[in-house]
Design goal:
heterodimer, A: mainly alpha, two-stranded antiparallel ribbon, 2% strand, B: alpha/beta, Rossmann fold, six-stranded mixed beta sheet, four-stranded antiparallel beta sheet, globular, disordered C terminus, binds adenosine-5'-triphosphate, binds magnesium ion
């Protein structure tokens, strides 16, 4: 029983990391109508920025996390503004840019990997955070790093929810996601909101990277598998649905952990896809997905 | 207040507007009439900034607005309500309305605007917490007009406010539009319901193939046979078809 609970806790915390990346993917998809294939690299860049801040500024882990999130958000805004948006200038915006955007995302992922390689080199770097002793609950010892991940992710999700549901900016973001013309005619600065949506999506990815850093190493290729898992999570939950991204992330994390613990660790990376295929067979739009995104 | 001069424009390489000109004076209610596909909505979109005119000029309140981003045009006090009763179905009625006041920084002013919208459409106040996706057609139209009024604009453009509504509801909507103009709003209204539109409006324009074809005071247009004829179709071919004289 203790082993089972351990596996669930590990799965839950890794699942929260997937959930944060999936949230970014889903947010960007619902706002910009693009699947951002360079999102794993945003997560990687976020982790490196966090590591650098932590090492060189001598600030605590929480300020590091916040600063890395903001800085990576800004990097994201610049990438979108300077590169992606140019591809939409022929008219119709992101909605019709389609295939070109997918290729651009892949291209950006390769560029970011190489930039990171040039700056930080090929070695996996440790991210040593002095977490302190594990929390003891009954006869269970919870490592602090897992507690941190779950708590921080929950706080970020709560703040995101508050932003989207309770503020005018959130209302405008939801409006842009649903119908850009009507958002425009309501007086919303649509290009600015698109920047904001992309920036928030990247910030969430960076948070995931900084959270995973201390339990894994930080390295250039770390984004690859996370993107795939987060993508599976987003699709399992229902692509474009934010609660779906969280649910999908947690499911993928827990199933992966249980699979690795009880079946075989060698196939760790395949369990997410078994889940994905199963969900797609039963409900193609994902667990919390709406049948099709309604577009004007 | 609004002056459209020789506006040419369209979608991609398809030209829809072929040099349309039109004027709306402050406090006036003007009807823009014409058959299906003649460019009425396209003209409104050119004014509101959703499409950029290829040539010609659009002046609002003494300033050129052609080519400006739509939200900046809203900031100047000119709002378009689109055809098709488009709301944000996942938002409540009140959220939809509040969004219309996005450009208003002064919260007190926004809440006064909301109260005013609720006096025009009391049913929306009753349903303010309801998801707007669950409303009836008439109520959707009310949300759209209400959202347009939330920024307290100087002028509002309505694209077929009465389309696809039950006759009783149409009457309701027209009565409210009348009330809104009596409160000092300037209105440019696209309509298929020619008679009602001309009864309400002071002046009317008839557009055909992207140019203004006929114009005049509403009480004259209402008796003009050409108006009825132009209204039947956008092109000579489908006009003849409608009259049964074509192929
Ligand atoms: N988004 C678009 N892309 C390409 N062509 C369009 C688009 N919207 C409208 N058109 C075309 O432009 C022409 C004018 O359309 P518009 O919507 O302005 O007509 P309308 O006068 O408003 O007609 P209706 O009474 O049906 O609303 C039509 O031929 C239409 O097919
Ligand atoms: Mg139209």
């Amino acid at each position: 029983m203790g082993y089972f609970i351990d596996l669930v806790i590990i799965g839950l915390s890794i699942g929260m990391v997937y959930a944060l990346v999936a949230l970014g993917l889903s947010l960007i998809y619902s706002g910009l109508d693009i699947v951002h294939f360079a999102h794993g690299e945003i997560y990687m860049i976020g982790a490196f920025i966090g590591l650098m801040l932590f090492r060189h500024l001598g600030i605590g882990y929480v300020p590091t996390l916040l600063l890395a999130v903001v800085l990576t958000g800004i990097v994201g805004v610049l990438i979108e503004r300077v590169f992606y948006r140019r591809l939409t200038s022929t008219g119709g915006g992101y909605t019709v840019a389609g295939m070109g955007m997918i290729i651009a995302g892949f291209g950006m992922s390769i560029v970011l990997q190489n930039v990171a390689y040039l700056i930080w080199g090929p070695k996996a770097l440790p991210f040593p955070v002095p977490y302190g002793r594990p929390v003891e609950i009954g006869n269970l010892a919870l490592p602090m790093s897992y507690v941190w991940i779950v708590a921080t992710a929950l706080i970020l999700m709560f703040v995101l929810n508050l932003l989207l549901k309770k503020t005018m900016i959130g209302l405008a973001i939801r409006a842009v996601a649903h119908n850009k013309d009507i958002a425009y005619l309501s007086g919303v600065n649509v290009p600015l909101m698109i920047s904001l949506i992309f920036g928030i999506g990247c910030a969430l990815g960076a948070a995931a990277g900084v959270l995973i850093g201390p339990i894994n190493y930080v390295q250039v290729l770390m984004g690859l598998s996370v993107l795939i898992k987060a993508f599976a999570a987003a699709v399992v939950g229902g692509f474009g649905s934010l609660p779906g991204a969280v649910l999908g992330g947690v499911l993928v994390g827990v199933i992966e952990s249980l699979g690795a613990g009880y079946v075989s660790g060698t196939y760790k990376d395949t369990y997410a896809f078994v889940l994905l295929i199963f969900v797609l067979m039963v409900k193609p739009s994902g667990i919390l997905g709406v049948e099709a995104k309604v577009k004007a | 207040m609004l002056e459209i001069k020789d506006v040419v424009g369209g979608y991609g390489s398809v030209q829809v507007l072929n040099g349309a000109s039109l004027k709306v004076a402050r406090g006036q209610i003007v009807a823009l009439l014409g058959g299906n596909g003649t460019g009425k909505s396209t003209l409104l979109k050119a004014v509101s900034g959703l499409i950029k005119p290829w040539s010609g000029s659009i002046t609002f309140d003494g300033e050129r607005i052609d080519g400006l981003r739509p939200d900046l045009i809203v900031r100047r006090g000119l709002v378009q309500v689109t055809q098709g009763k488009e709301v944000f179905p996942g938002m409540t009625v009140e959220e939809n309305l509040k969004l219309g006041a996005f450009v208003v920084r002064d919260r007190a002013k926004a809440s006064r605007a909301l109260d005013r919208v609720y006096t025009y459409f009391p049913i929306l106040k009753e349903r303010r917490q309801q998801l707007s996706g669950t409303l009836s057609g008439g109520q959707l139209q009310m949300v759209c007009i209400g959202r347009g009024l939330m920024s307290s604009p100087k002028m509002i453009m309505l694209d077929e406010p009465s389309s696809a509504l039950a006759p009783q509801v149409v009457l309701d909507i027209f009565r409210t539009i009348h009330r809104i103009t009596q409160d000092g709003m300037t209105v440019l209204m696209v309509e298929q319901n020619v008679r009602m539109a001309l009864l309400l409006a002071e002046y009317g324009y008839v557009i055909m193939d992207g140019v203004i074809h006929i114009e005049g005071p509403a009480d004259q247009l209402i008796h003009d046979d050409n108006v009825r004829l132009s209204y039947l179709g956008g092109t000579v071919a489908n006009r003849e078809a409608s009259l049964g004289t074509g192929a």
